[in-house]
Amino acid sequence: MVNFWSSAFILPAKCYDTIESMCSAFLWSGSPTQTHKAKVSWEDLSLPKDEGGLGVRKFKDTARTFALKLIWRLFTKPASLWGCGYCGEINETREHLFFACPYSYTIWESLARPLVGRNINPDWEWTVNRLRTMGGKSLDSILARMLFQTTVYYIWKERNSRRHRQGGIQTDQLRRFIDKAVRNRICSLRYAHGHKLEGLLRRWFEVTL
């Protein structure tokens, strides 16, 4: 059942935490509600057998695989989406969500314009072609592709949250989430002094501040 819903939606992380807690309780007590009898953490049980665990696959790991599959569908089956939760468009498509929808385009345009140019527009094909034809090794090209991937992920994630009726966040707030995610990704790369991409974070600050 969990895999079925994970294959269709990106479920909240707390949902998986609750389910794993119930599974752990059932394993040790025979009841999904008696959590105090667990003798070994679910984290340890999820380890491979050769590392002392039971080899039980964590739901979050499975969910990550399904999430990547859903994102892949955006690129390979553009007509497979359904009803936009941002603007009420009934006949949703990949092209509408990225970025003809006013909500998604407001976010994408505000962050991407300094990188992809003044002639930026909501058209999906134009956006993909523009990213392909930018100088592959330039800082702006690398940042534009990084931003594109992050924006697609966060817009899709927010869309699913709205479908689960968990409320919605405004464009400026989601923009900040995306901005922070890109900065964190750049920082995690830890380029050494003198590396050709050392100025990636500095360039990101230049185009976003």
Structural description of this entry:
This protein is mostly helical and 209 residues long. It folds into 2 domains: 1-68, no CATH class; 77-209, no CATH class. The protein is 62% helix and 0% strand. The protein is built from 10 helices and no strands. It has helices at 2-6, 13-29, 42-45, 59-76, 94-100, 102-116, 124-133, 139-163, 171-189, 200-208. The longest helix has 25 residues, at 139-163. The radius of gyration is 21 Å and the shape is globular. The N and C termini lie far apart (45 Å).
Question: Key terms for this structure?
Answer:
209 residues; mainly alpha; 2 domains; globular
Unreliable residue runs: none
Shape: globular
Helix coverage percent: 55-70%
Task: Give the termini distance in whole angstroms.
Answer: 45 Å
**How many β-strand stretches?**
0
Question: What's the quick description here?
Answer:
The chain has ten helices and no strands. By secondary structure, it is mainly alpha-helical.
